[in-house]
Amino acid sequence: MTDVLTPERARADGSPRPGARRRASATRLLWVVVAVALLAAAVVASIALGARVIAPADVLEELRGVLGGTEGGIEQAAVEKRVPRTLLAMVVGAALGVSGAVMQGVTRNPLADPWILGVTPGASLAVVSGIAFFGLASPASYLWVAIAGAGLAAVFVYSVGSLGRGGATPLKLALAGAASSAAFTSLISAILLPRIDVMNQFRFWQIGGVGGASYAKIVQVLPFLVVGFLVCLACARGMNSMALGDDVAAGLGERVAVTRAVAGLGAVVLCGAATAIAGPIAFVGLVVPHLCRLVYGLDHRWLLPMSMVVGAALLTTADVVGRIVARPAEVDVGIITAFIGAPVFIWIVRRTKVRAL
């Protein structure tokens, strides 16, 4: 049964009527408010919950004590420790969410995300190589190395996926990324096995987590994340054109190769910086863009900012869950996101069959 456009729903030329546009905008703004509220709730829960529970009503008072520099008790000390952890979870989740959305947009591959395309394993391989062979020992030194490794991995995967007839199809990119991820992971194991000292330093970072957060780490990574966010947001309109196909986008005046390269660079910077500061965290970049696309539509001018908000909320919530499921011990956030992301990944594969967006 075909859908009939009535005067109430559309104009004669097929474009939506002003009333329909207003209702769609109002619905979208409502979901924006919902996403921001969920992020705010996740932030409060992150500060309040842990080995020691702080009543939500007391969180603001304890925060005032921390900001004012006054002496406090155990609860204020807990808040002082949890605030940088919460901030780090937010910025890392936002970075991974936007990075995944951009990678799905520039490749038109619904299965694309930093882990599946081999970008996160490439950054991890670069970091472990730096630890083992060059004596890297601090997150600040990891940053440039991780970004370089992520960039080289992205170029390698795209080059392999472009071989043969048809160029870089979604299926070939997914296969090239999966094979590259397996190869990078094997190389990491080969480097670590004979080096017990490096393994001890690397194993906690490899799981992925935000437990060792500090204001110094956040300040170190923030400039890279800001640059990555701005580059990706600047390419939003171009990615909207590319969603129509490269030929159509070129016909509309879009420089497809330039837009794809610049947007990909922004995604690589975000992924590399997030991996350097928090370790390799999987599935956030896959799950978040799909959730946002269902709610906010395909327009990247909305999709990217909302992927930032939802990614921050998701990773913050996952960190809270990891703190309370095994209290007083903790489960690293990388394990929680894997539990969340694996079923969603299976659902996406069954639903999309690796077709283009």
Automatic annotation (TrEMBL):
It comes from the Bacteria. Keywords: Cell membrane, Membrane, Transmembrane, Transmembrane helix, Transport. The chain crosses the membrane at residues 29-55, 86-103, 115-136, 142-161, 173-193, 213-236, 257-282, 302-321, 333-350. Gene3D superfamilies: ABC transporter involved in vitamin B12 uptake, BtuC. Residues 1-14 have a biased composition (Basic and acidic residues). The keyword Cell membrane applies. InterPro entries: ABC_BtuC-like (IPR037294), ABC_transptr_permease_BtuC (IPR000522). It is a multi-pass membrane protein. Residues 1-20 are annotated as: Disordered. Belongs to the binding-protein-dependent transport system permease family. FecCD subfamily. This is Iron ABC transporter permease. It comes from Nocardioides lentus. The lineage of its organism: Bacteria, Bacillati, Actinomycetota, Actinomycetes, Propionibacteriales.
